[in-house]
Amino acid sequence: MPESGLTPNSSKLSSHLSSQSAVPSRSRFVIELLVALIVTKLPYVSVPFKWFESFFHEISHGIATLITGGMVNSIQLFPNGAGLCTSQGGNAILIAFSGYPGAALWGYLIFLLATWRAGIRFTLSLLGLIVMASSLFWARDMLTIIILLCLAGLFLLPIKLNNNSLLNSLLRILGLMIMLNAVASPTVLFGLSGKGDANMLSQMTWLPAWIWIFIWLAFSGLMLWLSWSKVNVNKGVKHEA
């Protein structure tokens, strides 16, 4: 019997599962998080990645609208990375609340999907199709259509690469960037008076805007922590036989 206590079959199963996993080690996660943080702070370079967060923010408003019986009129993205979703009907409180936590949740889901090695091309294709479908159904102006097509291209073009490990790493970094932007974006609302989702919620619920902002910050922080908790603490660590 092997000293590890594993039977040959269980050892093969463990090896197979490991080959299908792209869960990063702790050191790799830290490197990817630092890369994501640096990119989100770079002038100009960070704008396309702000569009990703803005898109998932606005589509979260749209999904909340549809779930609560409303209708989405349009989604707009602007050159500075901001966005706007206009809709009719639905639950106004849920719609206004959903943007920031929705973007953070999308970022976490993208990170999770990027830990599935065999499904990386399926994941990229699915995300690209979601962006293209949004462009088809909800984009009403040429600038938004161009931005969404560029975002779809950033998902679809890497499919041609043969290096699955690189694709998984890049997608994990993207997920982390979306979560980091979801953390940073609500803080801008502290300086706004009478504008933004937090002030809209404050008017509808009588709760101060800062409470909503802190809820969003806490949720985005939770998504980052869940990503960290997904890390394989044993990966890259050598064990003696």
What labels describe this entry?
241 residues, mainly alpha, two-stranded antiparallel sheet, globular, disordered C terminus
Describe, in short, the structure shown.
This protein is mainly alpha-helical and 241 residues long.
Written overview of the protein:
With 241 residues, this protein is mainly α. The protein is 66% helix and 5% strand. It has helices at residues 8-20, 26-41, 47-67, 92-113, 120-138, 142-156, 164-184, 196-205, 209-229, and strands at 71-77, 83-88. The chain is globular and about 50 Å long.
> Helical element count?
9
Task: Give the beta-strand count.
Answer: 2
Class of secondary structure makeup: mainly alpha
Give the helix proportion (percent range): 55-70%
Question: How many strands, what sense, and barrel or not for the largest sheet?
Answer: 2 strands, antiparallel
Helices and strands, in N-to-C order?
Answer: HHHEEHHHHHH
Rg over C-alpha atoms, rounded to the nearest angstrom: 20 Å
